[in-house]
Amino acid sequence: MQTIDEDDFEPTPPRRPMFRRKRVLIPLGIIVAIVVAFLLLRTPDTDRDAMIAKYGGPNVTFAAGPAGQRVHYRDQGNRAGPTIVLVHGANASLHTWEPLVKRLGGTYRIVTLDLPGHGLTGSTPDTDYSAEGMIDAIDVVAAKLGLERFTLGGNSMGGWVAWRYALARPERIDALLLIDAAGMPLRKGEKAPESNVGFRILKYPFGRWLATQITPRMLVEESLRGSVEKQEIVDDAMIDRYWELLRFPGNREATVLRARMNREPAMAERVGDITAPTLILFGDRDRLINPTAAQTFHERIAGSEVVLEKGIGHLPMEEAPDQTAAAIAGFLKRRLAPPAGNPETH
Q1: CA 224, CA 231: separation in Å to the nearest integer?
Q2: Domain coordinates of the chain in residue numbers?
Q3: How far apart are CA 319 and CA 234, in angstroms?
Q4: Are 72 and 61 in contact (CB under 8 A)?
Q5: I want to staple 319 with a disulfide (CB 3.0 to 4.6 A). Which of 18, 179, 185, 230 is the partner?
Q6: Whether 324 contacts 315, CB under 8 Å
Q7: Any bridge partners for residue 153, and if so which?
Q8: pLDDT in tens, 32-44
């Protein structure tokens, strides 16, 4: 048996100070680089007054609510005509409805508003961005304008708010317009759509935190382009508006709170309780909500009508305003009493 003498081992040389410094300096350098990159990429909130001047104009109007809300709204069109109230989708604003205001305003009074956590409304003191909080915002504007009954329409998240409002306040709804509306479950065998990059980021906790700090303009552009089929509508002015209003004080934090919110999917079972005349209008190239949701709404809401716009994405009112306005006007003429006022322009 071989024996090993202690003299066969050479003593391990002591670690040099240089190695110890490297072990400290390399991680420290990485941390510093991350902090510097964060500070360079961080996008601050926009200036409240500057945004109100730019996107509200000299006649900007707000309605004050009992919970401290300050809801930005516009009251346009034929004041003698029937009223249509329109609510936008997630991270959008009342500006998305301007193409329809131009085409339907000759006949209808059209009220649009920025929902809590959006546009010039910004955050609300109670941070209530649930369906009830959105419904309250509609009520605040309706009270300010003395509206007792109206047609209510919404796109995407705004469509979800609209049908939830129709369930909560059926006595106030003359008709319902669901434009690529959210809230229906997937049909058997369906997969959820890929969605756009902005909404995908919000699925993860780190992404939600990052969304409150870093909002690159190019990310907003990519999200917009991933939402529409008609790419030509996405111009610099549209990108700037979405980017700047998303960074309106409080809006990014509200976006994160909504991403974590329970959308109460069980409420979809009650959509069949809606009795108001309902138009379901979807773009057949919607990549955020499966267009088959239109059929699900139709099957559940008795007497509803469906329009699928070919070659159109998630924003029919901006991608195909003439076609969308004509569909709405035709539906309201068929299902409601003839409106007073001038014929709508197209």
Answers
A1: 9
A2: 48-335
A3: 10
A4: yes
A5: 230
A6: no
A7: 86, 177
A8: 433 334 434 569 9
- Residue showing tokens 């409805």: 97
Query: Token digits for 329?
Result: 């006007």
Instruction: Compute CA distances 145 → 61, 73, 79, 111, 126, whole Å.
Output: 11, 10, 11, 9, 23
Neighbouring residues of 316: CB distance < 8 A, sequence distance ≥ 6: 155, 179, 180, 281, 282, 283, 309, 323, 324
- For the question of whether the overall pTM of this predicted structure is more than 0.90, the answer is no
Maximal CA-CA distance, the chain: 112
Please report, for residues 181, 193, 267, the alpha-carbon distance to residue 161 in angstroms, rounded to integers and kept in the order given. Answer: 9, 21, 12
Kindly report, residue by residue over 95-140, the tens digit of the pLDDT.
Answer: 999 999 999 999 999 999 999 999 999 999 999 999 999 999 999 9
Look up the CATH architecture of domain 48-335: 3-Layer(aba) Sandwich (3.40)
Would you say 323 and 239 are in contact if contact means Cβ atoms under 8 Å apart?
A: no
Phi-psi region of 183 (alpha: psi -120 to 50; beta: other; left: phi over 0): left
Task: Report pLDDT for 30.
Answer: 43
DSSP 82-141: PEEEEE--TT--GGGGHHHHHHHTTTSEEEEEPPTTSTTT---TT---SHHHHHHHHHHH
Name residue 206's amino acid.
Answer: F
Place of tokens 């991403």: 259
